[in-house]
Every structure is written in structure tokens, then in C-alpha cells.
TrEMBL record:
This is cAMP-binding domain of CRP or a regulatory subunit of cAMP-dependent protein kinases. The lineage of its organism: Bacteria, Pseudomonadati, Bacteroidota, Flavobacteriia, Flavobacteriales. It comes from Chryseobacterium taeanense. SUPFAM superfamilies: cAMP-binding domain-like, Winged helix' DNA-binding domain. Residues 20-123 form the Cyclic nucleotide-binding domain. Pfam families: cNMP_binding, HTH_Crp_2. GO terms for cellular component: cytosol.
Length: 204
DNA sequence: TCATTAATCGAAG
DNA sequence: CTTCGATTAATGA
């Protein structure tokens, strides 16, 4: 399984185009739903959550991303507004580059531009798979879909040693299930030998 | 030690 | 499946 390194531009390159490093505190909001997309963001360290809320006020997490990954970039080629919020789960170091500078960077660096295409394609691909799994009425399938998705970001090739660093609540918000349902089905999957649980840590 | 947050469980709808 | 209520474990001030 190939690791998704979506995207990882050399920090030096970003700086030379006017990128600036910024440290966000835990729970700090990077941008909100409805804001204009004006920056390209790349995480150096930390964890960022992309979420939105449904009409009942329940949180739905679109994704949780970590080091060396970018976000907010899919809208840089359009004149649209964000459809989700970006919030730091922990203190994070993030480089942000103004939209126009980013586009200029791509123009001058065909190689990076190509990577960008590959990156966006890969996201579309996994989004499609996620969508299928998440629309399943079977909770085990939803969980499996999410776990496969998360694992695709992971490097190792070993069986059942990929640690899922999410709380049960986050998994619930990611799959649209309730915490209890997540817990119960995770146990069911453990019995089926699909994953292991050690000290509450999920190994997939 | 007190308070808060996360994980679990059992029972009912 | 979800909701409710209650217990227990883990973490931090």
C-alpha cells in the first residue's frame, strides 16, 4: 500500500514564496465555514480537525490530518467559500501561503503542480470509497471503511499494528455513529479478528 | 484530592 | 440503531 503524502512541499520553497510559519494553540480555529479560501496550509507539526455541524448541531468530522499534510487547498482553484471549519486539536505549527503566491509557485514548479494533481486525485478516490462505506447501513462496514482510509495514510505493511490515534468519540463523529455503537461494534470486530484492542488502543 | 474527560455497560425504545 | 443513566479509568490542576 502506497502512502499518501498529500501534499508536502519543502518548507524552504514555501518560505521563498512568502509562506509564513504560524503556531496555533489547541482548539484555535484556523478558518470557519463560510470564510473565503485565501491560503494554502501545510502542517509542520500537530493535528487539525476539519468538521461541520448538521442542522441539529451534531458535529460531523470530515477528516483529521497531521504532520506534512496540506488542507484548504481544494478550494484555492475556485472562488468559493469554505464548507467546513478547521480547528487545531493540539498546538500546531502550520505554514500558510497566500493563494496567489501559491498559484505562482505552481506555475514556476511544474513538478509540484503535477504532485498537486496526483494529490487531489488521490483524495477524490478515497472520498469516493469513504462515501460508499459511510452510506452503508452496516456499522461494521462504516468502521472498516474509516479504518482502511486512516490506514492508507500509514506507512507500515504489518497486519494489525496500525495504531488508531482517535478517541471513540472522534470515530463516532467521523462515521456518524454513536459512541456506544462504535464501542460495541469495535468489540464485535475484535472477536471477528479484524482488529486488536490493547489498553483501549485500537490496532488495525 | 477534586474535577473533567473518555470509555463502558445495561436496559429500554 | 439511539438514548439515558450510571460506573470506572485516566489525566491534570
Amino acid at each position: 500500500m502506497k502512502t499518501i503524502s498529500c501534499m508536502n512541499i519543502e518548507p524552504e520553497t514555501l518560505y521563498s514564496y512568502g509562506g509564513e510559519k504560524k503556531t496555533y494553540k489547541q482548539k484555535e480555529i484556523i478558518y470557519r465555514e463560510g470564510d473565503h479560501a485565501t491560503y494554502y496550509y501545510q502542517i509542520l507539526q500537530g493535528k487539525v480537525k476539519l468538521n461541520s455541524y448538521n442542522e441539529e448541531g451534531k458535529e460531523f468530522i470530515q477528516n483529521i490530518i497531521g504532520g506534512n499534510q496540506s488542507f484548504g487547498d481544494s478550494l484555492l482553484f475556485l472562488e468559493k467559500f469554505y464548507v467546513m471549519n478547521a480547528i487545531c486539536l493540539v498546538e500546531s505549527e502550520i505554514i500558510r501561503l497566500p493563494k496567489n503566491n501559491f498559484l505562482e509557485l505552481l506555475e514556476n514548479n511544474p513538478k509540484i503542480s503535477l504532485e498537486m494533481n496526483a494529490c487531489l486525485s488521490q483524495r477524490l478516490y478515497f472520498k469516493a470509497i469513504m462515501l460508499q462505506n459511510m452510506s452503508s447501513p452496516n456499522p461494521v462496514l462504516r468502521l472498516e471503511g474509516l479504518l482502511n482510509y486512516l490506514k492508507s495514510y500509514h506507512d507500515g505493511d504489518c497486519e494489525q499494528c496500525f495504531p488508531v490515534e482517535l478517541t471513540r468519540q472522534q470515530i463516532a463523529n467521523l462515521t456518524g455513529l454513536r459512541v456506544e455503537t462504535v464501542i460495541r461494534n469495535l468489540k464485535k470486530m475484535e472477536k471477528l479478528g479484524k482488529l486488536k484492542i490493547q489498553d483501549r488502543k485500537i490496532l488495525y
